[in-house]
Specification:
Strands 1-5-8-10 form a four-stranded mixed beta sheet. A four-stranded mixed beta sheet has the order 2-3-6-9, with no helix packed on it. Helix content is 49%, strand content 17%. Strand 2 (123-125) and strand 3 form a beta hairpin. The longest helix has 20 residues, at 86-105. Helix 1 runs parallel beside helix 3 and helix 5 crosses helix 6. It has helices at residues 3-15, 20-32, 34-52, 62-69, 77-84, 86-105, 184-201, and strands spanning 113-116, 123-125, 128-131, 136-137, 141-144, 147-150, 153-154, 158-161, 164-167, 178-181. The chain is α/β, with parallel strands linked by helices and 202 residues long.
């Protein structure tokens, strides 16, 4: 054991925490090294002086004072901003969703997506959505990346996003009319209108 190792163990030695081989090695070193022995004596004097000092009473409110100066966990900046400006936060979320949808829309390999009410009355085959003759869909239909063939009747509007429609009889079979959305800006406007329709229905 060298002087550096001994000096790092002197406090444990004084506290009586050192045992076994380390205690034996340290004691042997102290018997042969005058510098380390002197360091030990200085530490012993310092500890004796410290113990002889009068103890100061601890104020009752010390814990409260310490807790008051410790900073509380700060709230997330985004959450604080969202609480302060809820309308802007909603708009930001909407823009993020729109951008995500826009990127998804521009994917070169888009699959057929059909939504709306009365789905049990339509037949989906490959990329075609068919309203069979004699069937009536009571509600709106939205078709993305496909073709809708209306042989029956749609009592609502049909929205086509990058899609086409085949009316086998007449356009009057779609009571609510047909909306074509093939351009990006049209699509964005359609999504914005749908977003605000949610609030109208509530």
């Amino acid at each position: 054991m060298n002087c550096k190792q001994v000096n790092s163990l002197l406090h444990e030695y004084l506290d009586g925490d050192l045992t076994g081989v380390k205690l034996h090695q340290l004691s042997h070193h102290l018997d042969t090294c005058s510098n380390c022995k002197e360091n030990l004596m200085q530490l012993e004097k310092t500890e004796a002086l410290t113990r002889s000092l009068p103890k100061s009473p601890v104020p009752d409110d010390l814990t409260d004072k310490i807790m008051d100066v410790i900073p509380m966990k700060s709230e997330n900046r985004w959450m604080r901003w969202a609480k302060q400006y809820p309308a802007m936060a909603a708009a930001a979320v909407f823009v993020i969703i729109m951008m995500g949808s826009l990127f998804a829309m521009n994917e070169p390999e888009s699959n057929l997506i059909v939504s709306g009410s009365g789905m049990e009355y339509v037949v989906i085959k490959d990329n075609q959505v068919i309203v069979p003759e004699g069937q009536t869909v009571n509600g709106d239909l939205v078709v993305e990346n496909g073709e809708i063939i209306v042989e029956g009747t749609v009592n609502g509007k049909v929205t086509l996003i990058d899609s086409k429609i085949n009316l086998l009889a007449s356009a009057e079979k779609v009571a609510g009319g047909v909306t074509h959305i093939d351009q990006t800006l049209d699509w964005i406007w359609y999504k914005i209108s749908g977003f605000f329709d949610i609030f109208k229905s509530e």
